[in-house]
Amino acid sequence: MKKNLKQLRHEKRLSQQELANLSGISLRTIQRIEKNESKGSPYVIKTLCLALDIDPQTIYFDLEDLDEKKTDRHQEVSAIEPIDGIQRPYESNTEIKYINFSSLIVLLIPFANMLSVPIFYFLFKKRLAHTIYKDLALKILSFQMIWSIATIILMIAAPLSIVCFPSIPTSILDIPLFVWVYWFMLSFHLITTLVISFDLNRMKRSIQFIPNIL
């Protein structure tokens, strides 16, 4: 069932100002959308949905009440207000992608992601203008830490599987088990990184399941 922005905001127990702070969308723009004075640009709607963690298709607009003549382009362009004059949200999204893809160096150098991702994070930290993107960056960094620790533990524990499962085919044992474990974890890392990138392109908060340990 579709709901308007005001209903969705109330369900998240957010005030208009809190939603403005969280999304980076101006308070005036949110007020205009909730009063049906504007339906907002596609980017504004996607950004609000990202902040509310909802599907854009969930929002309902009473098109009959919209006065499109009152919606000028200047209002839409200025809807996203830069913080400290540093950068706009869509540019921050690009920085998040750089941080995310920097982890793929682990495909060439074992555990190099633990160096590349923090470096890119600190390089772009001041350019992540909004809370949403800072949270995403920290979650990506948290994922790298969790993945690395889990991989090391599994690689150390791999030899124990020979004792627990003596029927493991000899052809598999020709390659040390810890190498198989590392290849498996690399595959998981690659898939997760690509899924995060795909969802960032669609303005979805894809990594809510990852705890922020930082």
Keywords:
mainly alpha, 434 Repressor (Amino-terminal Domain), about 60% helix, single chain
Summarize the topology.
Layout: H1 5-11, H2 16-23, H3 27-34, H4 42-52, H5 73-77, H6 89-102, H7 113-124, H8 131-157, H9 160-164, H10 170-173, H11 177-201
Helix pairs in contact: 6-7, 6-8, 6-11, 7-8, 8-11
> Total strand count, please?
0
Roughly what percent helix?
55-70%
Number of helices: 11
Q: Report the end-to-end length measured between terminal Cα atoms.
A: 37 Å
Biggest pleated sheet: none
- Summarize model confidence as the mean pLDDT: 76
What is the structure about, briefly put?
With 214 residues, the protein is mainly alpha-helical. It contains eleven helices and no strands.
Task: Tell me what the structure shows.
Helix 6 runs parallel beside helix 8. This protein folds into two domains: 73 residues, lambda repressor-like DNA-binding domains (434 Repressor (Amino-terminal Domain)); 113 residues, no CATH class. With 214 residues, it is mostly helical. The longest helix has 27 residues. The protein contains eleven helices and no strands. Helices cover 59% and strands 0% of the residues.
